[in-house]
Every structure is written in structure tokens, then in C-alpha cells.
Amino acid sequence: MTFTSILESHVALSKRRANSHAQLERVKNEANKESYLNDASLAVFCAGSLARLEAGEKSDLDLFVTANDDPKLRSRLFEYTLFGHLISINEKLEFPPLVTMVSILKFIF
Q1: Exposure of 50 in the CB half-sphere (CA atoms within 13 A)
Q2: pTM score, two decimals?
Q3: DSSP result, 3-60
Q4: What gap in Å lies between CA 13 and CA 19, rounded to an integer?
Q5: Which of 14, 46, 77, 109 is the most exposed place for a label (fewest CB within 10 A)?
Q6: Cα dihedral sign for 73, 104, 29, 15?
Q7: Domains plus CATH for the chain?
Q8: Which position has the higher pLDDT, 62 or 38?
């Protein structure tokens, strides 16, 4: 028996994998409704347990955003509006709420 087949036959992990696929589909569908997020300059992707396909019933939504060097993306208004859309998706999908804005990190290179 291979390691992969052992993992695939594990009941609890199979449930988490199925839950993760369903949650990822919900996130994708909700993000596609947000025209603000469909800008070609942005890429939004999931991380954490959802990305590892290990999400349980109480897992949170970990999102990362990458962007090109478009000057409009550097405005504070764009940043706050983007965060607002991401928070809205989090709330609509009923993931655990963000405790504080510290949950959102920003890295500029």
C-alpha cells in the first residue's frame, strides 16, 4: 500500500478534502461575483488549511493577494476597498470573523 493510497483511504482526511473542495468552489464563485477582484492586475488565492485541502468545519478563510506594480493599486482607497471586498466574502460565506485588521498583512517590495 502506498502512502498516497493510505491518505486517500483515511476517513477523516477524506471528509476534510471533500469539505475543502466544496469551500474552495464557494470562495471562487463568490470572488467571481466581485467585479473589483476581477482586475487583471490582481491575483487572489487561498492559503492555510483550505489550500492544503484539510479544512474542517471551523476553519477560517486565509486569502493572499498579489498585484503588479500598477500605480492605482498603491492608493489607500484601493487598498481599503479591496480589504472591504475580501471581508465581505468572508462574511457572506460565514467563515469565522476576522478578529482585528491585524489579521490582514500587507507587504510592499
Answers
A1: 19
A2: 0.80
A3: HHHHHHH-HHHHHHHHHHHHHHHHHHHHHHH-GGGG-TTEEEEEEHHHHTT---TT--
A4: 10
A5: 109
A6: positive
A7: 3-103 (3.30.460)
A8: 62
